[in-house]
Amino acid sequence: PRNQYARDQRWMSEASDDFYLVAIGASAGGLEPLQAFFGALAQLKNTALVVIQHLSPDYKSMMGELLGRNTSLPISTVEDGMEIRADNIYLIPPKFNIYLRDRRTFGVSPKPSGGVNLPIDVFIASAAGFYHRHMVAVILSGTGSDGARGVVEVNAAGGLTLSQSPETAQFDG
């Protein structure tokens, strides 16, 4: 059995060549596939997972509690300057977009007022620039085009992109 303290103390170094980042974008109808994904997830090694879900600014998200029922991995809401740690799940905070400042540190910025906000694209495109072939982008149920530009960036950087089948998505836009 793995030592919980040792796992929590591990963090990805900039020189690490075996660390992977998995970004999971979800919108309308994304909760059920997220729960199924984390319920079926095998034990990770040197991988951080980031969930970017469209959230209403007035809505108190219960995402951490809901996903916590399906995984034993630590779940945190991203804060500005937070370090990325292996074998952890990170959630986007309400009213903010997240991005990577560098290969191991999150940045947080307020959502733009007015206009279209594409938090999935913002995060995935920033991460692809640092992780290249060590990046996986997963796009789940939703409407609109958020995530489409980000997966193009991941593909161009040599990473892997996956999407939920339209047949299983609650919203397949």
In words, what does this structure look like?
The chain is of the alpha/beta class. It is built from five helices and eight strands, in the order H-E-H-E-H-E-E-E-E-H-E-H-E. The chain has helices spanning 4-9, 31-40, 63-68, 119-131, 148-157; strands at 20-26, 47-53, 75-77, 89-91, 96-102, 105-110, 135-139, 160-163. Strands 3-4-2-1-7-8 form a six-stranded parallel sheet. Strands 5-6 form a two-stranded antiparallel ribbon. Strand 1 (20-26), helix 2 (31-40) and strand 2 form a beta-alpha-beta unit. Helix 4 runs parallel beside helix 5. Mean pLDDT is 85; it is low at 1-15.
Helical segment tally?
5
The radius of gyration is: 15 Å
Whole-number mean pLDDT: 85
Shape: globular
Tell me roughly what share of residues is in helical segments.
Answer: 25-40%
Instruction: State the strand order across the main sheet.
Output: 3-4-2-1-7-8
Which stretches of 5+ consecutive residues score pLDDT under 50? 1-15
Query: What portion of residues belong to β-strands?
Result: 15-25%
Largest sheet: 6 strands, parallel
Q: Any descriptors?
A:
5 helices, 173 residues, 8 strands, alpha/beta, single chain, six-stranded parallel sheet
